[in-house]
User: Which sequence fits this backbone?
């Protein structure tokens, strides 16, 4: 299976959309922190992926964008949006109430969730999207 990763342009667009919808200050605070967060899900050591599943990769996006604070504002919103779009690009969608997602990201920001716990949350709260052939059947 080919994994479809996010590019900086994707994450910047998510940040801009979040600021337009919910307010805040648009812009990058630390470009290196943003680059590091976006590249984290691709990391490997000795030829072994550090984030071997789609859910661990989604968790890496959410966790490191949130923790690295690359933006002037809207880091948590951008973090969860990046994880959701990554999962969507790879055939999954998050199925959880907005309140649960909000609480999740507050816990991540307060370091009450590890990346591993976040990956478990994504696994438990995501569903495979139906293909067009399944929808039309």
Assistant:
């Amino acid at each position: 299976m080919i994994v479809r990763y996010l590019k900086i342009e994707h994450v910047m667009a998510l940040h801009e959309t979040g600021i337009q919808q919910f307010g805040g200050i648009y812009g990058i605070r630390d470009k290196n922190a943003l680059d590091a967060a976006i590249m984290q899900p691709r990391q490997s050591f000795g030829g072994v992926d550090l984030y071997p599943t789609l859910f661990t990769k989604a968790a890496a996006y959410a966790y490191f964008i949130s923790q690295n604070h690359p933006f002037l504002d809207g880091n948590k919103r951008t973090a969860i949006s990046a994880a959701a779009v990554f999962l969507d690009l790879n055939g999954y969608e998050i199925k959880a109430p907005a309140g649960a997602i909000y609480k999740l990201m507050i816990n991540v920001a307060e370091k009450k969730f590890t990346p591993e716990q976040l990956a478990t949350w994504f696994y438990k709260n995501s569903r495979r999207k139906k293909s067009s052939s399944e929808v039309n059947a």
